[in-house]
Amino acid sequence: MTDIPITDARDRLASVIDEARRGTVYLTRRDRRVAAIVDPETLAQLEADSEELSDIRAVDEAWAETERLAETPIPWEDVKRELGL
């Protein structure tokens, strides 16, 4: 991980992109991280992981709602049968 002031990054964008292939490069303004440059494979993995985590959270919330309302879940086999699957 590398921190680079935005003003420096402007002057050497090509080398900053090359650095990002080896690891995340954080762009800073007034010594605070304001953006990050990552290689495309890392970004794709982060997006996939984020989607997976979102799905897991949605399932957890659905189970919590079921418990909160004291509902009985409908068995998957019954759902498939009702839908003709």
UniProtKB/TrEMBL annotation:
Pfam family, one: PhdYeFM_antitox
InterPro entries for the chain: Antitoxin_Phd/YefM (IPR006442), YefM-like_sf (IPR036165)
NCBIfam families assigned: phd_fam
Primary role: Antitoxin component of a type II toxin-antitoxin (TA) system.
Protein family (similarity comment): Belongs to the phD/YefM antitoxin family.
Protein name: Antitoxin
Organism encoding this protein: Microbacterium schleiferi
